[in-house]
Write a structure and sequence with these properties.
This protein has helices spanning about 5-10, 55-65, 80-90, 115-125, 135-145, 150-160, 175-180, 185-195, 215-225, 240-250, 275-285, 295-305, 330-335, 365-375, 385-395, 405-415, 470, 475-485, and strands spanning about 35, 70-75, 100-105, 130-135, 170-175, 200-205, 230-235, 255-260, 325, 355, 435-440, 450-455, 490. By secondary structure, it is α/β, with parallel strands linked by helices. Among the domains are: about 25-290, Alpha-Beta Barrel (TIM Barrel); about 325-415, no CATH class. Strand 1, helix 2 and strand 2 (about 70-75) form a beta-alpha-beta unit.
């Protein structure tokens, strides 16, 4: 079939290998990478992160549904909640994932069969055991306070004891990269001890999170030559390199990647699987979770944040609200023509969506896009779009902010589309004052007293789709009033002009709060 010439003229060159075009990796067989999620164990070591036992069950089911291969449920020998979780999971059927129980090597001077942690691990009933052991000689002598030969025996004995009792046994080489730099021979000896005892996986851990990608690659190349085992990678994010290190390890032949959803974890967090998974599938052309399930990543990320009682990271790559948000007029104009000009993937591939913001940096393309978003017929070539843009920039110059007050923009755009001048102020009666009045009204307190106050205020308009509380600002007087009584509420007179946006923080314009947090 003959292609249209006009269509060819508007096709953009493919500068990246991602979902905007076919991947060369799609030809022939793709590599398969196993994803190991440790959100339920390592993720909960992050400050402020905690899950109830039922939360962990719900999360495990959700991770299984999107195709995660291994789910680390916790450390059954460390606390009662984790042990109850593993017992509860006996009644949950996982269709895809294998449940993993975490523990440490046997204690020094104690046999594996006589170690309480080993018995708790077996009692948990998980098909996979993940054993952490020391690979840094400094930790062996100063943290465990034992000898280097005894540590090697602890690793080998533990793996050999668990091997016939589990479907799979993994060895997490804690502090391996730091240990390699300090004592290369001994660090490699710990890996060989685990592999020799029958470990199915040997996982290299950058526990302190300070290794840079080029160092990690160089060390991995040595490990591949010296250790005959299937390798995994487990890195922390203290140097902001966890995702980069994980992807570099895959490029070097590692077959398993460990991490957490949203990068939750101790100190600066773990490798973020929400960034790693789409990078593997869409950019590196390897299989991990089914590609169709990538569209659920944003929902999964939000689900984990909600159960952890953590606010979603707005600028989180791939799935954050700002990941595909465009503010500059030149950018929006280009995205209207070809999205790949300023987007590295199609946002829908990971369940996200494109957003356009309006501000003093906007161009007419922003105005037209946003108007269409609200169902307003506005054309870029008409004077209305220019008039709205000029007014918006003028108000932003005065200290107002439209980015967080979209209802104000919507009113201006509708006024222009229906032929009204944008300076008109809707009023129910000509007798009403043009200056809105803010009144405080207090519900009865324990004493039964009431109070009221009023003062002129410039109005603040909140977005029509969001709670007003989030965008309105608190004035000094309203703060003082709320200190006197926790039940203060406010309302504006009906002569309020709904098109004026909320003033920015730090501007000279007065700020008001609509309802104090916690008020009924």
């Amino acid at each position: 079939m003959r292609r249209s010439t006009s269509r060819l003229l508007h096709q953009a060159p493919r500068a990246r290998l991602d979902v905007f075009g076919p991947l060369p990796h799609d030809v022939g067989m793709r590599r398969a990478i196993k994803i190991y999620d440790t959100t339920l164990r390592d993720g909960t070591q992050g400050e402020g992160v905690s899950f109830s036992m039922e939360d962990k069950v719900r999360l495990a089911a959700r991770f299984d549904a999107i195709g995660i291969h291994y789910i680390e449920g916790g450390w059954p020998g460390s606390n009662p909640k984790d042990l109850r979780f593993f017992r509860r999971m006996h009644d949950v059927s996982l269709k895809h994932a294998k449940l993993c129980a975490f523990s440490m090597t046997r204690r020094a001077g104690v046999s594996a069969a006589g170690d309480a942690n080993m018995q708790a691990l077996i009692e948990a009933g998980a098909p996979v055991a993940t054993i952490v052991g020391k690979s840094w000689d400094f930790h062996v002598t100063h943290a465990l306070e034992t000898t280097l030969p005894e540590n090697l025996a602890m690793i080998g004995d533990t793996i050999a004891y668990l091997r016939p009792k589990m479907d799979e046994v993994m060895y997490d080489a804690e502090h391996f990269f730091d240990g390699f730099r300090a004592n290369r021979e001994y660090a490699l000896a710990t890996l060989k001890a685990a592999a020799g005892a029958g470990a199915h996986w040997v996982v290299l851990c950058d526990t302190n999170g300070g290794t840079l990608p080029h160092d990690l690659v160089a060390i991995l190349q040595v490990v591949k030559r010296e250790v005959p085992a299937r390798l995994g990678i487990h890195v922390h994010n203290d140097a902001e390199c966890a995702v980069a290190n994980s992807l570099a390890a895959v490029s070097e032949g590692v077959e398993q990647v460990q991490g957490t959803i949203n990068g939750f974890g101790e100190r600066c967090g773990n490798a973020n699987l929400v960034s790693i998974i789409p990078s593997l599938v869409l950019k590196m052309g390897v299989d991990c979770i089914p590609e169709a399930h990538l569209r659920e990543l944003r929902d999964v990320s939000r689900f984990v944040s909600e159960l952890a009682n953590r606010k979603p990271w707005t600028s989180q790559p791939y799935v954050g609200d700002s990941a595909f948000a465009h503010k500059g007029g030149m950018h929006v104009s280009a995205v209207l023509k070809h999205p790949e000009t300023y987007e590295h993937i199609d946002p829908q591939a990971v369940g996200n969506h494109r957003r356009v913001l309006v501000s003093e940096l906007s161009g007419k393309s922003n105005i037209v896009w946003k108007a269409r978003e609200y169902g307003i017929d506005l054309d870029q070539a008409t004077p209305d779009s220019r008039r709205i843009l000029d007014e918006l920039k003028s108000l932003e110059d005065q200290g107002f902010q439209f980015e967080g007050a979209e209802a104000s923009f919507s009113w201006s755009a509708r006024s222009a589309a229906t032929g009204r001048t944008s300076s008109s102020t809707p009023t129910a009666s000509s007798s009403r004052s043009s200056t809105p009045t803010l009144r405080w009204r207090r519900r009865p307190c324990a004493s039964g007293s009431r109070g009221s106050s009023s003062t002129p205020r410039r109005p603040a308009t909140a977005p029509s789709t969001r709670s007003t509380t989030r965008f309105a600002r608190r004035s000094r007087s309203s703060t003082q009033a709320s200190r006197r009584c926790s039940c203060w509420t406010t309302r504006f007179a009906s002569s309020m002009n709904p098109r004026v946006p909320a003033p920015r923080r730090g501007s000279s314009s007065p700020r008001v709060t609509v309802r104090r947090r916690g008020a009924p």
